Amino acid sequence: MEAITANTQDNKHTVSREELLNALRTIIRYIGDDPEREGVLGTPERIARMYDEIFRGYDAEKKPHITTFRNTAHQSEMVFDSGEYYSMCEHHMLPFFGQYYFAYIPSTDGNILGISKVARVVGYCAAKLQLQERLCREIIDMLADALDNTAKGFAIVMKGKHLCKSMRGVRNNGDMTVSYFTGCFKENTQLRNEFFNMIHMNGRHF
């Protein structure tokens, strides 16, 4: 019987595939439907496969390898990246998603990131039950570690729409923006403003 293993900082537990499928069938019955109905007969297995994908952030073996290169040009300019992310709110297990904006200042004597890896780190950190605030920190922590904590500073802004707020409860737009700065971005207002200008240059506004 195939088993699904979930890891957290504090515990590790193993649930068999069949236990998961039975739990999902119970949920279908609880909401008032019939898990044996033709239209939803395969739904538990589809959800299980989806969970394997969208919660891959619990699997240490799927942690992305972060390629770095020597900063042979002694680059000290801001490196900027942006993209989309998708995650799941830990309070209601509903999606939140949106745009991220990332920048860092490399050490002139250290390494630089393979910039395509930023999106992979964002995707991996987002692929578990999350809080938007914690997600920002986890992304920066992982990238900082990959550079042996030599970068001069990191900046990230994550703009998200939370379905737990827009499709239930107060039912408003569910928008939320979180920022996190370290090093020179935290200490230097002018550098932060330059980062925000980069965001606006990419056609995004707050």
Overall description:
A five-stranded mixed β-sheet has the order 7-4-5-8-9, sandwiched between helices. It contains seven helices and nine strands; from the N terminus they run ββααββββαβαβαβαα. The longest helix is centred in the last third of the chain and has 15 residues, at 132-146. The mean pLDDT is 91. The chain is α+β, with helices and mostly antiparallel strands and 206 residues long. The relative contact order is 0.13. The chain has helices at residues 17-30, 43-54, 116-126, 132-146, 163-166, 183-187, 189-201; strands at residues 3-7, 12-16, 68-70, 79-89, 95-105, 111-113, 129-130, 153-162, 175-181. 36% of the residues lie in helices and 28% in strands.
